[in-house]
Design a protein that fits this description.
This protein has 4 helices and 25 strands. It has helices at residues 159-164, 183-193, 202-205, 254-263; strands at residues 13-15, 26-28, 31-35, 39-43, 50-55, 59-66, 69-74, 80-84, 88-89, 97-99, 103-106, 118-121, 125-126, 128-131, 135-138, 143-145, 149-151, 176-177, 180-181, 210-211, 223-226, 229-235, 238-243, 248-253, 271-274. The strands form 8 sheets. Strands 20-25-21-22-23-24 form a 6-stranded antiparallel β-sheet.
């Protein structure tokens, strides 16, 4: 069965490379764009259920613009869905830096005392054009504090350290930021921050790395999967995960989590994956 989350086809339009494989009124190459707002909801249908969120600077291919919405596919994980058409901007300025702290601000001038223009999430990408003493100026004319940005090729050595920046963030289904995040959003963001390509949803993430035999001890950075849930191992006895029980990103003793999740009817651990 084809995964509709990764298939750029909605009946009206489809990606040109799918011609002969799916039915559509038109087959198009698509046009490049980037997310131009801090956070854009990616919906399953126009204005419907949120599947995921895209962040400032994320590259997308636009296959259709339809009644104020755009049908897109994200470059970072191939996820398909609808965003508000107004959330898109041109793809001409390639990102040079990214936000490597839980959150930052974009200012209209290099002064932290003026009201910010935009709150920026961890993982947002920007194009820096000039350096001020304490700020970077972006191609959009915004100013961002220098300590909050890393060069595009600088990454976390450890994805767990990146995930720990989200500790205490509220749980949000389909969320991808410190303002609201879910289990797979936490894992994807942490892995991307460490330079590891990662799918968006937990069932897709089950193929990452290699399977860990039951008898093999767990290590920092291992991933544990339940039905519809993923957690990251901090040490052999503790996991970090965004979960609806705490309604937040929380640390939890591994044994306690396994018992609790099984007791609530979501079954035992289904996969143990190591990325290295």
């Amino acid at each position: 069965m084809t995964d509709r989350r990764l298939l750029p086809a909605n009946g009206r339009v489809a990606a040109a490379h799918l011609k002969g494989q799916v039915e559509a009124t038109a087959f198009v190459e698509g046009t490049p764009a980037r997310i131009a707002v801090a956070v854009a909801d990616l919906w399953r249908s126009p204005g419907g259920r949120r599947d995921r969120q895209l962040l400032l600077g994320d590259a997308v291919t636009v296959y259709e613009r339809y009644e104020g919405f755009a049908y897109v596919q994200a470059a970072k994980d191939d996820y398909v869905g609808y965003v508000a058409e107004g959330d898109l901007g041109p793809a001409d300025a390639a990102p040079t830096h990214w936000v490597a702290v839980p959150g930052s601000q974009a200012y209209p001038e290099p002064d932290m005392k003026v009201p910010q223009v935009m709150d920026l999430p961890f993982g947002a990408h920007v194009s820096v054009v000039t350096h001020q003493p304490k700020f970077f100026e972006t191609a959009d004319g915004y100013y961002i504090p220098k300590p909050h940005l890393w060069p595009i090729d600088k990454r976390f050595a450890d994805p767990v350290t990146a995930a720990q920046l989200m500790f205490g963030a509220p749980y949000l289904w389909g969320g991808n930021t410190a303002r609201g995040i879910d289990c797979s959003g936490l894992v994807q963001g942490a892995l991307l921050a460490a330079g590891i390509k990662a799918p968006a949803d937990s069932d897709q993430q089950e193929v990452l790395g290699h399977e860990i035999p039951e008898a093999e001890p767990l290590m920092r950075g291992d991933l544990l999967f339940w039905k519809g849930h993923v957690a990251m191992v901090v040490d052999p006895d503790v996991i970090l995960h965004a979960n609806a029980h705490h309604m937040a990103v929380a640390y939890e003793p591994l044994d306690k989590a396994i018992l609790r999740i099984e007791a609530q009817g979501d079954g035992p651990v289904t996969h143990r994956r190591r990325l290295g």
